[in-house]
Amino acid sequence: MVKPPLEQTMFLLWIVGLWRILEPVFLGTVVNPISLFWGALLTGLLAGYTRRLVLFLPLSIFLLFGVLLSPLNIDWIPLMGASYALLLWLFTVLFFSLPQTWVAFFGWQGGYGATGGRVQAEQTVHWTAFSLILLSVGAAFFGDIAAILFVTLGIVFLFFWQTGLRYHLQLHSYLLIASTCLGGFAFYALISAISVSYLLEAAQITPLLSVLAIVLPILAQSFVAYPTWQTLYKQPLYHIAAIIYIWALINSLFLFLENGHTWLPFILILLALAQLPLLRPLKNAAAIRGIGIGLLLSLAFTRFFWTLLEPAYVLMLWGFILWTVANYGLPRLKAPWAIAPDFWPTLGLLFVFSGFGLET
């Protein structure tokens, strides 16, 4: 009879204390880091003893993060957030390897059902750190400082790598690959002395995307010899490569219509070559390549020679090249690199007719 009123009183006192701690935030003044620390500690104890880890433990984690933020410049918040999330999760895994008495002291054992408090607490910490990691990446992009973004993404890579190996969730695999690609972009921006926002413009990012669209599916295929890596990363690599390819293709078409970017013909050639490893898992890969590669190479050829030769001669020359390659080159390619030649003679005929039309 006494326990429920005591728990209610403790909960009300905790709410009052939490409000007193966070009141300076609403008043626009500085929060006392010592108060934040005690608030985080008491909230963590309350989470254990009330058996409501999912409700109180994330709040305790964010209160403790506030203690670390107080002496920092705002530019360093993404880096600190990612580091805190990684170290917190590693500490949690290490802490739960200690004897049972330490966990029981915090009330994280018993009364949680079949899974147990240790499992639920680790899952709660993991997903809270996961959320903090994503917020840190977003803040790093918003800050637009290449060095901080690069280091932050390096820490994010370590987090998704270690959590992926422990929990075997493909969500971590997707985010690991994405963070690696973004880290490469941040490193390129850093050594090129340009801002990340400038790098994300179509004319700057498209060549890098074209290279990634080739590298990622080749890397995915190389994991066949490693069963664990194949299970975790092969499918995500192909999916992310497909997203990157579509992004690069859309950018290339816009650049083609805007008549911009000197290296556009070479980008289109890279996109054509990317279809060889990217479409390898598909049953109708040869047919798709026959259409896609033919169109992309046509755009690249006409774009490169359009101002160097007479447009009519460019169209007719490319039409004859398509016929020749379709008859003597493509039939020699075998699976998994096959390219269906059926579309190329028709496309070549259209180019020849177009060239004759311009000539007359």
Strand runs, count: 0
Q: Helix coverage percent of residues?
A: over 70%
The rounded Rg comes to 29 Å
Strand content: under 5%
Compressed to H and E, one letter per element, the order equals: HHHHHHHHHHHHHHH
Q: What are the segments in which pLDDT stays under 50 over at least 5 consecutive residues?
A: none
Largest sheet: none
**Number of separate helices:** 15
Average pLDDT for all residues: 84
The rough form would be described as elongated
Termini separation comes to 101 Å
Oligomer: single chain
What structural category characterises the helix and strand content?
Answer: mainly alpha
Write a short abstract of this structure.
The chain has 360 residues and is mainly alpha-helical.
Architecture overview:
It is built from 15 helices and no strands. With 360 residues, the protein is mostly helical. Helix 12 (264-278) runs antiparallel to helix 13.
